Amino acid sequence: MSGYQLALQQLVDSALPTGAFAHSLGFETYIERELVLDEASFGRWLAAFVSQQLTYSDGLAVRLYYEEVDLGELDSLLSASLLPRQVREASLKTGGRLLEIGAEVFPSPALDLYRELVTTGRAAGHQPLAFAVVARSLGVPLQEALAAYLFATVTSLTQNAVRAIPLGQNAGQRVLRKAHDDVAAAIATIAHLTADDFGAVSPGLEISQMRHERQRARMFMS
């Protein structure tokens, strides 16, 4: 077993206390509008989210960091590209928690640098970059890091959908199984993107995330 594998499992475990359980990243708006209401409709939403926002924002940011694009520049790009306020704040809340946890259990000079940038106001501290810094410091290869990050996000969202729609536990597992192909396709797409593709996401997803802020009743912070 490679030295990083157990650490990676801990890093992406759904029990990691980053606060991801408090965020729907927009699918709750679709529930309120009765567009997501069962296993099939949530699966369609999840596939769109993975192929758009996760691919062209988070996933591409992870890859560019591995390719040694400046960390501060990537942090600024994420802040600029995450237009919905709640989604941007979700990235910062979970990213901040991941930076704290990483400093305690997976310390590294690279992580210290990112935390210093955040502490001094030169960076915001986004979740995908916090993950990328820890994963790369652990020696996780890029492809494995991308697969772990994307599927951990899918898992978190599916667990939240099981509670919110609600879906049965078995339905949630079927959704996750079908998402394997979506994650694999996203990884293949990310490999061929350029920096010019950063932030190219579906307006429909962003509009739903913006509407969530003014939704009358909600379970989630985003």
Describe this protein's structure.
The protein is mainly alpha-helical. It has a single domain, classed as Urease accessory protein UreF (Orthogonal Bundle). The protein is built from ten helices and no strands. The radius of gyration is 16 Å and the shape is globular. The chain starts with a helix and ends in a 10-residue tail after the last helix. 42% of the residues are buried. The mean pLDDT is 93.
- Quickly name the level 1 CATH class: Mainly Alpha
User: So what's the overall shape?
Assistant: globular
The radius of gyration is 16 Å
Any low-confidence stretches, pLDDT <50, length ≥5?
A: none
The number of distinct helices, counting runs of at least 4 residues, comes to 10
Give the DSSP E fraction (strand runs of 2 or more residues).
Answer: under 5%
* CATH homologous superfamily identity: Urease accessory protein UreF
**Mean pLDDT, nearest integer?**
93
Oligomer: single chain
Main beta sheet: strand number and arrangement?
none
Helix % is: 55-70%
Return the CATH architecture: Orthogonal Bundle
- The string of secondary-structure elements, in order, is HHHHHHHHHH
Report the structural category: mainly alpha
- For the termini, the CA-CA separation is 38 Å
Strands, count: 0
